[in-house]
Amino acid sequence: DSGVTQTPKHLITATGQRVTLRCSPRSGDLSVYWYQQSLDQGLQFLIQYYNGEERAKGNILERFSAQQFPDLHSELNLSSLELGDSALYFCASSGGQPAELFFGEGSRLTVL
Amino acid sequence: ILNVEQSPQSLHVQEGDSTNFTCSFPSSNFYALHWYRWETAKSPEALFVMTLNGDEKKKGRISATLNTKEGYSYLYIKGSQPEDSATYLCAFPWGTASKLTFGTGTRLQVTL
Question: Which of A42, A48, A104 sits opposite B43 (nearest CB)?
Answer without folding.
Answer: A104
